[in-house]
């Protein structure tokens, strides 16, 4: 195949105007939307090749998730819903850093290195979030796919987890589910309705939810779920799109600012579920009778889910484990290992690392503290559960229903919410009962801008700095002075900043620790 058409379209419609090196990071390529057209086009080209390379459908999702509305981004989805294979992240980086004329040789290089048969058919699924720039950027992706002779299916505005789901279903021939948006809603809602067939209330559990749609696709997705879920839950949707995407609301705002989202009425003792701009992260929060704010993040969700599944799998000889990152609250790790006896592994930030580590368990629960995560079941686990369910083992029957509520292909805010609701309902817990399971150590996250964030390199799942020399020693000295102190720094994979995390026995101390460490970095 020659790539003259790819070069022509690039030069005429998607010329590259920057020379600064760009890297495919944790979340693919992400920046201000007006700088992304040529990148989108090239990711379309790459998706076309990757589809041929894997003889499968490849997904392209256009979103900047929880980031502000002027930003956008692009991520490729591999055949089984996974993040793009590392070798192809390198190809993505090479292709984006080529000149317009250089596209041809970059593509030829990829074809020869990956031994791609370019005569094969290529099909790419494309989805986008609600950002105003997403439609234009979607056209650029499609132009790329078409320029390498590929075909595409445009799913329009969908959540990130829906795109992962349809890609997976298509590629496994429909075994996981029907490869359509409706198929996704129906599978998950049907499973949830079934779990609720015995009634919607139980003990302290009340099926009332205030839902914060972050003014994005999560609001649309939830209203679609509600159409399918009848009366299994009593959800009221706020931040449906009348305000600015992710602005003062949504999962990232609630988690990082530790504040109640604007646009949601301050009803006391009712849980609020906040999702992010592409509905792959979820954070719970509530106000008590005194109006005090409590947040239940990915760690609270992970421990709730892992504890429940651990009970259901008892007797099935399956190894269940939880995967967290360094951002997991120390109290959550202590609770799940010491109280519940579930083994915990620590992975580097970024779901692909967590997902990978979760594969080492028969049942792997993985969650980032920011609310991104899911549960994955190995083939052995599925078979063991199905066999026991057929033999009328009660727990296994329940587990087999719970399985269908979970979107195993990627973190999915709404599927995760339905899973949390399932566990709370089974336990007869109110949101404060759930919160009381353990108390988070006070913590603080900060960002600092430095001249070159790449000078900071880390090891031990990002908990220890290797360079610059001496920084880790300084951090150790600072941390020593704080009761229950823990702190680490790492360069962000998605923003041009360095992140600082600190926890300590009081909020004041955690804030103080974060500031001192930030000063050491700066
Ligand atoms: P970076 O910018 O690398 O810290 C952030 C999140 C990740 C992950 C990615 C992708 C934190 C501390 N980091 O990564 O967990 O969600 O974005 O969106 O929340
Ligand atoms: Zn997201």
TrEMBL record:
Its EC number is 5.4.2.3. Its cofactor is Mg(2+). Residues 53-95, 99-170 form the Alpha-D-phosphohexomutase alpha/beta/alpha domain. CDD domains: PGM3 (cd03086). SUPFAM superfamilies: Phosphoglucomutase, C-terminal domain, Phosphoglucomutase, first 3 domains. It is an enzyme of class 5 (isomerase). Residues 474-518 form the Alpha-D-phosphohexomutase C-terminal domain. Pathway: Nucleotide-sugar biosynthesis; UDP-N-acetyl-alpha-D-glucosamine biosynthesis; N-acetyl-alpha-D-glucosamine 1-phosphate from alpha-D-glucosamine 6-phosphate (route I): step 2/2. Residues 179-283, 297-429 form the Phosphoacetylglucosamine mutase AMG1 domain. Mg(2+) binds at residues 65, 276, 278, 280. Binds 1 Mg(2+) ion per subunit. Substrate binds at residues 368-370, 490-494, 499. The active site is at residue 65. Catalyzes the conversion of GlcNAc-6-P into GlcNAc-1-P during the synthesis of uridine diphosphate/UDP-GlcNAc, which is a biosynthetic precursor of chitin and also supplies the amino sugars for N-linked oligosaccharides of glycoproteins. Belongs to the phosphohexose mutase family. PANTHER family: PHOSPHOACETYLGLUCOSAMINE MUTASE. This is Phosphoacetylglucosamine mutase.
């Amino acid at each position: 195949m020659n790539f003259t058409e790819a070069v022509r379209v690039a030069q005429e419609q998607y010329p590259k105007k920057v020379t600064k090196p760009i890297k495919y990071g944790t979340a693919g390529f992400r920046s201000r939307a007006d700088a992304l057209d040529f990148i989108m086009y090239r990711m379309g080209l790459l998706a076309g090749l990757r589809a041929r390379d894997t003889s499968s459908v490849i997904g392209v999702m256009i979103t900047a998730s929880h980031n502000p509305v002027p930003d956008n981004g692009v991520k490729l989805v591999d055949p089984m819903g996974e993040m793009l294979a590392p070798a192809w992240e390198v190809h993505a980086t090479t292709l984006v850093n080529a000149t317009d004329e250089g596209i041809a040789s970059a593509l030829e290089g990829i074809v020869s290195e990956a031994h791609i048969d370019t005569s094969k058919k290529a099909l790419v699924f494309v989805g986008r979030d609600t950002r105003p720039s997403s439609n234009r950027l979607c056209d650029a992706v499609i132009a790329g796919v078409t320029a390498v002779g590929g075909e595409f299916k445009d799913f329009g505005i969908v959540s990130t987890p829906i795109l992962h789901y349809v890609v997976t279903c298509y590629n496994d021939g429909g075994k996981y589910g029907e490869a359509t948006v409706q198929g996704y809603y129906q599978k998950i809602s049907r499973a949830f309705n079934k779990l609720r067939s015995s009634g919607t209330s139980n003990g302290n559990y009340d099926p009332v939810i205030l839902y914060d749609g972050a003014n994005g696709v999560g609001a649309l997705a939830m209203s679609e779920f509600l159409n399918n879920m009848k009366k299994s839950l009593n959800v009221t949707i706020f931040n449906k799109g009348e305000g600015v995407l992710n602005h003062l609301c949504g999962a990232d705002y609630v988690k990082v600012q530790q504040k109640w989202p604007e646009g949601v009425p301050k009803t006391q003792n009712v849980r609020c579920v906040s999702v992010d701009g592409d509905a792959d992260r979820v954070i719970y929060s509530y106000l008590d009778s005194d109006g005090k704010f409590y947040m239940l993040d990915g760690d609270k969700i992970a421990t709730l889910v892992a504890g429940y599944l651990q009970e259901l799998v008892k007797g099935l000889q399956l190894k269940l484990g939880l995967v967290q990152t360094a951002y997991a609250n120390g109290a959550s790790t202590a609770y799940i290992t010491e109280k519940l006896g579930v083994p915990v592994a620590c992975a580097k930030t970024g779901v692909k690392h967590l997902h990978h580590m979760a594969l080492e368990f028969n049942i792997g629960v993985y969650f980032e503290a920011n609310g991104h995560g899911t549960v994955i079941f190995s083939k052995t686990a599925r078979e063991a559960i199905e066999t026991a369910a057929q033999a009328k083992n009660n727990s296994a029957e329940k587990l087999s229903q719970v399985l269908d509520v979970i979107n195993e292909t990627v973190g999915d805010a709404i599927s995760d919410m339905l899973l949390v609701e399932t566990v709370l309902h089974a336990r007869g817990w109110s949101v404060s009962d759930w919160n009381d399971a353990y108390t988070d150590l006070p913590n603080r996250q900060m960002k600092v801008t430095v001249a070159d964030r790449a000078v900071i390199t880390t090891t031990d799942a990002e908990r220890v700095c290797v360079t610059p020399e001496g920084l880790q020693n300084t951090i150790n000295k600072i941390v020593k002075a704080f009761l229950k102190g823990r702190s680490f720094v790492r360069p962000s994979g998605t923003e041009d900043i360095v992140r600082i995390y600190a926890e300590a026995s009081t909020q004041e101390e955690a804030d103080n620790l974060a500031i001192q460490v930030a000063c050491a970095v700066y």
